């Protein structure tokens, strides 16, 4: 079946299909290091670098990575880092916007967005990969990241950011041996590499 035919099948899928996709997504993220729950205390203790899970990305789960790898890579990074419910919503909206930019349409983007938003519901019980950097740390499932926690996240991704290499032919940055990511998503993961402030820092520092 051609990619066009598969996309057409997705576009006519009923809402029940989205629920199935969301459930399957949970299974994939659980293998990537989920297992969080909402029973954590709100207080965040001092955390050592070694206690923070390494960042990994499996790219796009239910459709070919191809040109969409850049969207999924940044989305995986934001879900790994965690944060507030508003941070999660902004991450899912950014995923939708990225797919719209690449396809020029909203149909596929809306399906993907609906799937990741539906995944929040059972994910609160079974774990869906949100905030998986902290799965060995006693902290709330949702909550603002402190300056110290942001420092740890940046330290964990320093090797990725240092290794970003611009492919002049594709205009994308090579990372982790994948198809490459756009500059916009590279800036999301590695703002300091581009001399930009970290949007999650109250201080506005890189």
Description:
- With 206 residues, the protein is mostly helical.
- The chain has one domain (14-32, 58-137, 144-194).
- It has helices at 3-11, 15-33, 69-81, 85-103, 107-118, 120-126, 147-156, 158-162, 183-189, and strands at 165-167, 172-174.
- A two-stranded antiparallel sheet has the order 1-2.
- Helix 3 (69-81) packs antiparallel against helix 4 (85-103) and helix 4 runs antiparallel to helix 5 (107-118).
- The radius of gyration is 17 Å and the shape is globular.
- The N and C termini lie far apart (46 Å).
- The model is unreliable at 1-45 (pLDDT under 50).
Poorly predicted runs are: 1-45
Strands in their spatial order, largest beta sheet: 1-2
Number of strands: 2
Number of domains: 1
Which radius of gyration do the C-alpha atoms yield? 17 Å
The class by helix and strand makeup works out as mainly alpha
Approximate helicity band: 40-55%
| Percent in strands | under 5%
Order of SSEs, N→C?
Answer: HHHHHHHHEEH
Topology:
Blueprint: H1 3-11, H2 15-33, H3 69-81, H4 85-103, H5 107-118, H6 120-126, H7 147-156, H8 158-162, E1 165-167, E2 172-174, H9 183-189
Antiparallel strand pairs: 1-2
Helix pairs in contact: 2-5, 3-4, 3-9, 4-5
């Amino acid at each position: 079946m051609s990619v066009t035919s598969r996309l057409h099948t997705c576009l006519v899928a009923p809402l029940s299909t989205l629920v199935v996709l969301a459930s399957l997504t949970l299974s994939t993220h659980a293998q990537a290091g989920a297992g969080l729950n909402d029973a954590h205390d709100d207080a965040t203790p001092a955390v050592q670098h070694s206690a923070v899970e390494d960042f990994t990305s499996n790219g796009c789960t239910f459709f070919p990575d191809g040109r969409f790898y850049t969207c999924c890579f940044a989305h995986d990074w934001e879900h790994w880092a965690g944060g507030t419910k508003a941070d999660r919503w902004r991450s899912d909206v950014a995923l939708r916007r990225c797919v719209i930019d690449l396809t020029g349409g909203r149909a596929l983007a809306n399906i993907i967005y609906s799937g990741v938003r539906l995944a929040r519901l059972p994910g609160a019980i079974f774990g869906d990969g949100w905030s998986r950097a902290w799965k060995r740390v006693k902290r709330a499932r949702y909550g603002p990241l402190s300056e110290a926690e942001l420092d740890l996240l940046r330290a964990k991704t320093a090797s990725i950011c240092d290794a970003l290499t611009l492919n002049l032919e594709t205009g994308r940055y090579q990372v982790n041996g994948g198809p490459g990511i756009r500059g916009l998503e590279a800036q999301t993961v590695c703002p300091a590499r581009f001399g930009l402030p970290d949007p999650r820092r109250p201080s506005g520092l890189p």
